[in-house]
Fold these 3 entries.
Entry 1:
Amino acid sequence: MAGVADSDVRLGRVGKGVRLAVALVGIGLLVNGSVRASDDVWPFGPMSQYAQTVPDDASITYTRISAQTDAGTTVDVPLNIEGAGVARAEIEARTGEIVANPSLLQTVADGWAKKHPDKPKYVKLELIRDTTQLVEGRVDGPPKAEVLATWQVRR
């Protein structure tokens, strides 16, 4: 073919048809998910937990774990797989269980110690819920911290 290098390959009719069909199916799935507005069809529809607005006069809560270390410092535990080996969503989903049985926090300390043997170890953990109040859409003062559970780490 004139003007086409030996290493260049043109897409044939079948290839173009397959690409068009895949694109149309993808668009159809996205439209279906959007019309149904259901997270059940994710990733082919809205993930509504990220698409919500907050009313102007509302409380926003944030769950975290604070740790006292054997170095005498207090730190917020990094709630992700690389940090303590547990994701924030797991902690939030099990908050009630942790409040009822604070020993469940031991796995957080164990995960941190296993992943970071060269860092200070956790000696005490607190599950904390920070609440930020909005008034007319603006933050009204600093967050209020409520300790939900405390656990003295076992060695």
Entry 2:
Amino acid sequence: MKAFFLVDSGILNYQISDNFENKESFVFENSEQLYTFINFYLKHDDERELLLLKLTKNFDRIYNPQKHGKEIFGLLFNN
């Protein structure tokens, strides 16, 4: 994964956000904070790479394509 995400604070309303640490590094409250994040990460490659590493590890820990694919298939076709 060569990209990372910046998300609005609405994600904090969902249980999935509990799986991520350092949410203050990628969750923004408003457009001004988003702009600040974008500029910061464009200027600080090391911080961007560190965030990418952390987000990738968290995502890999919580997402299993085979398991979740089977669950989705079951919900769609077995009910």
Entry 3:
Amino acid sequence: MFDFNKFDLIKPNEDEELYNYQCSLIEKRSEKNLTNFVLELALIQTISPIEDYYVAISILQKYYEQNDDIRVGILGAHLSSVWECYKDNKFLPKLKETLTKLNDNQQKSIIYYLLAHDMIRKDKRINRKIYKDLLTKSINLSEKFVYNYYHLAKVSSKRNAKKLMQKAFSQIETISNEKNCEKITLEDLVSYDFYLNERILGIKSSNFENLIEFYSDLKSIKTCYLFKMFR
């Protein structure tokens, strides 16, 4: 059994609701659903007001040393690129090794995107050719994806960027409004799929302002008009 007690988990005096939910996750854990438990335990550490991304990364990193579940690698790699960009991403080498073994093109697409994402988070003065190549590979393999098109558009010519952004917008499944956001539950917030769709793929989100503003600059369209188009 994975030893979760070694980590500095949520305490009752920090947030009672999150602590109680964490306790329920721990009580329901079993060897059969251990990976799901680890993913949820890591994600609950990231929820406001706790937002301890470093504990979340530590949990995933320790578990990934003894388990090859690609979801753990994907979540850990993304969190590490965002919150520990000053360090080597310890999830990516193992993910990169799996590329030749994977049959799932969407998972391959995600790994190529994460490799590119880690590059740009670490240093804005990237090797543009390698960066664009990784994003292009991600796009060629992807089924549903938004952010790979967006990030490639940002380093492309204006003409190509417009086409890429149009494709990106066509991939969006849900744009949440204030009313929808109120319906999001703790169960959603600790779900790997919820995080994947919102933070990595970008196909379901409440935060598309950056994409809309970038596209409006390309098209010289008023941002407020684009907001109406995609809501």
